[in-house]
């Protein structure tokens, strides 16, 4: 079965729209294995959030390029016209003859220059000639239209800068089209300069790109983390939405962001033994995110990334109606999770001051911002969430970003919070990493069955990139382990390559 695509210059190829997120594209590809049987991902193992990410579809003759910081589709390349059906304004790019077998080629020479120039895209300005590295090789001529470029092979000895390029490419000296590229811009020579940095015009969401309905919630572009448990969610079109931890209600969240993609009701696990001691006997922590009970919350959030069969609300009839239950709102397409529970002070005073018959208020108590870093255990369960932490260092504003290495972030935070601890011993204890295992899961846990892309254990290719395919078993490597580092109001999950996989934000003193 061949996939069919309609070429849309400056916009995309079929359902693949320029600007779409890596998460959205991969999710769509994996949902149709009969059309996309093989998916290969190439990324830099040392700089996965800075260098471009390349997604190859060898069975479909396509190659997709995403930028590293934002995971957005920037370039679509057709590298083999025989693997899929391509059309433009109801006209096929190649004429197929003979057998339609999947294993035997049945196309005639691919799209010729005459076919592209006369019948499909029309006249355009002269392009760019790239000479071969050796004098006896073939050069490449790149011809571009707005949002579209085609590369042709041209014998170097036939090239002349004084000759008409239409005559040259129409002659026998020109051979098959090598590739065709779809991009956003008026010409390839201009677009390639800022290809991976220019702000895309289309949204990350494939749903938003294909619909004009205003009922679809706007996507979150960036999250700004302020001190005091305040987060600003900057959206693509609407005004920012402010989340105040321990105050913002689930009703506020649904009204602004729409219903969550999944709801996960947290249940007690073996870690609950650490929370069995009375609260009054437990010393308050400067970094409650590193307490075992809080670690259980974080780990449960990572386990709630499930497939479609599990995207349902799970109700436990034994949940205490007095407010002891905790629920995760999973927003995979926004790149974050929200923990809905009762604030700690409400939990403490609930029985003694409020009374057991009075329901406690449910609010957002934690926010989990996911980095979606290739090679990590949690890759592709969420869209990448970009964030900035705004701080004040003795009157000097500071901004920490999701693209920074944790060692940089940690050095700055250590200086800022140096005087926030009771003594040096507490400071060292709270800033010490806690190992979080991502590969050990019980048989019925989503951790043991989730399908992954990537893995640092595979090592770099000769070009310095790690490559991966579908179905990597996370339990095969201990390198899926991460470390947790806590600072007041923040918990960082850090990968082996020093990049931040997840930032948890909570409110101190609650």
From TrEMBL:
<protein>
    <submittedName>
        <fullName>Uncharacterized protein</fullName>
    </submittedName>
</protein>
<dbReference type="GO" id="GO:0043001">
    <property type="term" value="P:Golgi to plasma membrane protein transport"/>
</dbReference>
<dbReference type="InterPro" id="IPR039156">
    <property type="entry name" value="PHAF1/BROMI"/>
</dbReference>
<dbReference type="Pfam" id="PF03676">
    <property type="entry name" value="PHAF1"/>
</dbReference>
<feature type="compositionally biased region" description="Acidic residues">
    <location>
        <begin position="307"/>
        <end position="319"/>
    </location>
</feature>
<comment type="similarity">
    <text>Belongs to the PHAF1 family.</text>
</comment>
<dbReference type="InterPro" id="IPR005373">
    <property type="entry name" value="PHAF1"/>
</dbReference>
<feature type="region of interest" description="Disordered">
    <location>
        <begin position="275"/>
        <end position="320"/>
    </location>
</feature>
<dbReference type="GO" id="GO:0005802">
    <property type="term" value="C:trans-Golgi network"/>
</dbReference>
